[in-house]
Design a protein that fits this description.
This protein is mainly beta. The protein contains one helix and 17 strands.
Length: about 280
């Protein structure tokens, strides 16, 4: 008879020791318009080959150079601050535009800062000319990336409500940017149809000191739905009649310039437009 067993002594838990490991510092990627506008930025990825690439030194939001005697300009059109890479800190997405002669392209680019507080380029996010995107209108931030308003067409002198607009979201994949939300394609644009123009030779008659005639043109709707706001643009040019001379360039003189906004034109329908033309006799 040895009596009841003796209970074991309770073990003591070790006292926690506070960690002395430093908390990683995430660089501040919120770059202001003024800071970005006077920085030297690594810009790559234009579709138009004439657009400047490489290390571009911006001044007041613009990088300007010349190519073949023509201004070649990259401008910062807009920027937003958004967590592009999911590190719980904001980066900067900027909308850049390249303008050279009659070519224009827009591109959204991601920027951040490194551990030494230098501005670094994350890479291009999306460009006008990618897939079915004709133009980038504007950008905005979202919880999971940058949202980009894109359109299916972009032309000069085009009615502002003709293009279709979509918001598409883009996010960091770890290696680059990819679309992460929003539509991936445009539906057929019901405001666009297949128009054609035919005409007859302009015949002039003398009227006093001038020549006069009527330019007759017919607009055809070859498409499968109505053209709601067809527009006919006509430029009458006097061709140089003299033989070309070595070292000289033929010149052309605009006689008349017309813009005709027509009534809606049904599918398969045609409409004839008659434009009176008066040309000074001195041009001949």
């Amino acid at each position: 008879d040895t009596g009841p067993p003796t209970p074991p002594s309770p073990s003591l838990s070790p006292t926690p020791v506070p960690s002395t490991a430093p908390t990683p510092v995430v660089p501040d990627g919120r770059i202001s318009t003024a800071q970005l506008g006077r920085a030297t930025l690594d810009v790559q990825g234009w579709i138009i080959e004439d657009c400047p690439s490489g290390r571009l030194a911006f001044d007041d939001g613009e990088y300007r150079t010349e190519r073949d005697g023509m201004p070649n300009v990259v401008t910062i059109e807009d920027l937003v601050h958004v967590d592009l890479d999911g590190d719980s800190a904001d980066e900067t997405a900027a909308l850049l535009q390249c303008s050279f002669f009659d070519s224009v392209e827009r591109m959204v680019v991601g920027f951040d800062r490194d551990a030494r507080d230098r501005i670094v380029t994350m890479g291009p996010i999306v460009r006008s000319g990618d897939s079915d995107i004709a133009w980038i209108d504007r950008i905005r931030s979202s919880a999971t990336g940058v949202e980009v308003n894109v359109t299916d067409i972009h032309e000069d002198l085009m009615p502002i409500d003709l293009p279709q607009h979509q918001w598409r979201r883009y996010s960091w994949t770890g290696k680059g940017f990819a679309q992460s939300g929003g539509p991936t394609a445009f539906a057929p644009n019901q405001k666009i149809t297949d128009l054609g123009v035919t005409g007859v030779q302009l015949r002039l008659r003398q009227e006093g000191a001038n020549y006069a005639g009527t330019l007759t043109l017919t607009v055809h709707n070859h498409g499968d739905h109505a053209a709601q706001r067809p527009r006919l643009m006509v430029t009458v040019i006097e061709a140089q009649k003299r033989r070309p001379v070595e070292g000289c360039v033929n010149t052309r003189q605009v006689v008349a310039d017309f813009q005709c906004d027509l009534a809606p034109l049904a599918a398969g329908a045609s409409r004839t437009v008659r434009i009176p033309i008066i040309i000074r006799k001195s041009l001949f």
